[in-house]
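thought: fold this chain, then report.
action: predict
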Amino acid sequence: MHARQAEINRAFGCIYDDLGAMLWLPRLGTDVTLMKFEGGRAVRTPAFFELLRIIKAHRAELAVWDTLTDVFGGAEIDRRQAREFVQLCPAYVACEIGGAVICAGHPSLAGINSGNGSSGSTGWDGAFRSRLYLSSPKAENGEVPDSDGRILTRVKSNWAKVGETITMHWREGVFIPDRSANGTTGSIGRRACELVFLELLDQFTAENQPVSSNSRAGNYAPKLFAKRPDRDGFVKANFEASMHKLFAAREIVNIDYGRKHDERKRIVRRS
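observation:
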């Protein structure tokens, strides 16, 4: 969990001190079942009430339970048990905190093949108010599958349009949206573009190809970077925004180079 969070921090450009509103509860090797069924009766366990106490004490407005298999102690294909669990555990907690609870789960083979990401009884889909499915893109026409690609699809929602998707790619420990977006995903995308800018700058420097911050120059960095096949889908406008941000953060600077009476400026990483 620490290693994954460190990669997320790097993508957001933040440090652990910025995450005071976040609380991790690793429970590897312990029983974290929140509900069991005894004689056909649903029983919430002491672990559930301890978790609820911690969530309230932290004043959390969002709780994520990973995975559903770890916290549900019933039969996944039993529709009644699935509905009782959702109503008496995540839905109950959401009402208590005035927030939301996300339960992460793995799809069945049938759910993967059908493309809807379902698993077990239809009671799961019916009980939750919304459901997102993260899947891998399928290769077509004999193409090699994109192992780093993912598609996040809203397959159910009581309050939003169904079927909308976000395409993304795995990069340095984080899924990065392929298109520019607003809000949280947009901030990740902007940070990712800055990293790509720096990597391409290193490549051009190693190739002894100076790049300029002057938009009228033939070697204008954003224009050249947008032509590279390893640009990760970013375009000239993305690189221009990232360049200005990197200059403001003093991560890159301009230095003089060239012959006497023909001095020019090039972009380099700040040493």
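thought: worth noting. The first strand starts at residue 35 and ends at 38.
final: tokens above.
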